[in-house]
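Handoff note, outgoing to incoming analyst
You'll be picking up this chain. Sequence as last confirmed:
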Amino acid sequence: MDIRQLQFFLSVFDYGTMGRAARHLRISQPALSQSLAKLEDQLKVQLFERTSRGMIPTPFGIAFAERARSISTQARLALEDIDALRGSGRGHLSIGAGPSFASGIVPEAVLRLLVTRPKFQVSITVGASEMLIPAIEHGSIDLLIGSVYERAWDRELASEMISQDTVSIIARKDHPLSSGNHPLQASLAFPWVLAGRNDSLRLRLTALFKEARLPAPEPRVETSSDTAIKSLLSRSDYLGFLPRALTTVEEAAGLLAPVSLVGGHWNRPIHILYLQRKALSAAARAFVNHVHAICQEHAALPERPAP
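Most recent structure output, in case you need it:
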């Protein structure tokens, strides 16, 4: 078998049908079918069940996918390292990022990386850290920048802490709680807009209120959209719980600000995560070094007013 066979197999595994996989690979469906049949003949097992709903992996296919993904990823990294040594500058880096970091640290580090690797291609997948961890394990992203919670640490992940991010109770700048120093309980007199009940920041907010022996806020509006949350906050007396990295522009424009509540903020650690068993490529390590440098530069800047 060769690497292309593994890549073809993984496309069928991921896309679920021969047609979608062939379009993704930009090859004909008969060529893909022939490659898959040859692979099954070499392995002497059936990797998929062909059904009217698509290609359903057999137990052999599921077991083979994990190894195939690891081999395919390692082969790509090896080729990128060879290209780097040859001076071609070509390659690909796939980055996962939490929403708070996709608009700040990550693009800044990407731009610095591309200065020395102008032919490089970078993809950025944005989502909650706990949702992107499986993508690291499967090899579809090379590394993740995000805030990671306790339940992630049972994975085979290497971690590098790079900084801390402040998450605060946020409101419009002229909110009734914007001046003075109020107890946390005062926030319960106002309506809230929050993410879903199982969202990691929502869980942390609940913990803050529990520590203060208060009932957790029950939001009048629930949404996973940070844009919608900020829009509601800027137009009303609603309160939200957001990373300060997400409100930089609105704070500078005088639209939003952290409210003056005792215990109304949380300093969360930011990590870079990647698989322990998979060595980072030269480009990935260069990207990580840029992230560390950017965080050190930001730490040296004057701090914004504490909430």
